[in-house]
Amino acid sequence: MNFPHDKNSNSPVIVITGGTQGLGRALAETLLQGGFRVSFCARSSVDVEAAKAALQSISPVVAVSGDINDDTVQTRLVDETVRAFGRIDGVVNNASTLGSLPLPVILQSSFENDRHVFATNVLAPLQLLRKAVPILTRQSRSLILGISSDAAAGGYPGWGIYGASKAALDLLHKTMAAELAADGVQVHSVDPGDMDTTMHHAADPGAQGLASPATVARALLPLFMPLLDSRSHPFATGTRLRVAGGVLEGADLA
């Protein structure tokens, strides 16, 4: 079933990178069911079309295929979202890469791997926000959410390159929270915990007891609700968050 896009709707619009699987897909579905509109991207055109077909059974979506590292893909994602919906109220920097597998210890990683991980996990989110923030600030309230990891602070052997990229993402989001506070932009990074995803199993094939992405997505929903109504934000902007046992809580690093 196809739905017409409606630029005149007051429903908030959320852009999600990496929206075809794992937390990105679960969050897209949760937000659509909660009355939001969603735009998403992912690398695989096949996966994008399949996700678009499934999600449009709930509500209209904008879907863009391509690598988020590509400047033209970032531009298309922003432009097509505004063209379809007339606004952007939130951006979720969810797309990520582990880099080389099995995960190498820091001194055995390559420059090519280091560059790829930081490009995808740090620079691409930053470049996307530079395109999206001028549109976010048109709203009285808006949200930026970066998906981080406990590896950002864990010091786990083998996770150093990935963890360092997520630590950089944390700091960028915390700093932007201070820089954008006067513009009504709420900014957080959040550690979603260990989830039952293809990505996590690729790094740790024997992992068990992992949280479902749907459970984590529901825990994150309160961050978006102030865009839909007049309720207060549940946390101060800039707070680093985590999901533990299906509950969203503050997790600022000392």
Features:
254 residues, alpha/beta, Rossmann fold, 8-stranded mixed β-sheet, 8 strands, 42% helix
Overview of the molecule:
The chain has 254 residues and is α/β, with parallel strands linked by helices. It has a single domain, classed as Rossmann fold, CATH 3.40.50.720. The chain is built from 8 helices and 8 strands. The protein has helices at residues 22-33, 45-55, 71-85, 111-136, 151-154, 160-180, 198-203, 213-224; strands at 13-17, 37-42, 61-65, 90-93, 142-147, 185-191, 240-244, 247-250. It has an 8-stranded mixed beta sheet with strand order 3-2-1-4-5-6-7-8, with helices on both faces. Helix 3 packs parallel to helix 4. The longest helix is centred in the middle third of the chain and has 26 residues, at 111-136.
Topology of this structure?
Elements lengths: L12 E5 L4 H12 L3 E6 L2 H11 L5 E5 L5 H15 L4 E4 L17 H26 L5 E6 L3 H4 L5 H21 L4 E7 L6 H6 L9 H12 L15 E5 L2 E4 L4
Parallel strand pairs: 1-2, 1-4, 2-3, 4-5, 5-6, 6-7
Antiparallel strand pairs: 7-8
Helix pairs in contact: 1-8, 3-4, 4-6
Would you kindly provide a brief summary of this structure?
With 254 residues, the protein is an alpha/beta fold. It has a single domain, classed as 3-Layer(aba) Sandwich (Rossmann fold).
Which spans have pLDDT < 50 for at least 5 consecutive residues? none
Radius of gyration: 17 Å
- Integer tally of domains: 1
Class per helix and strand makeup: alpha/beta
Q: Mind telling me the CATH class? A: Alpha Beta
CATH architecture descriptor name: 3-Layer(aba) Sandwich
How much of the residues is beta strand, in percent?
15-25%
DSSP E strands, number: 8
Q: CATH superfamily assignment? A: NAD(P)-binding Rossmann-like Domain
Terminal Cα separation, in Å? 50 Å
Q: How are helices and strands ordered from N to C?
A: EHEHEHEHEHHEHHEE
Summarize the amount of helix as a percent range. Answer: 40-55%
Question: Helical segment tally?
Answer: 8
The biggest beta sheet, please?
8 strands, mixed
What strand line-up does the widest sheet have?
Answer: 3-2-1-4-5-6-7-8
Integer average pLDDT:
93
User: Which overall shape is indicated by the principal axes computed on the Cα atoms?
Assistant: globular
- The CATH topology comes to Rossmann fold
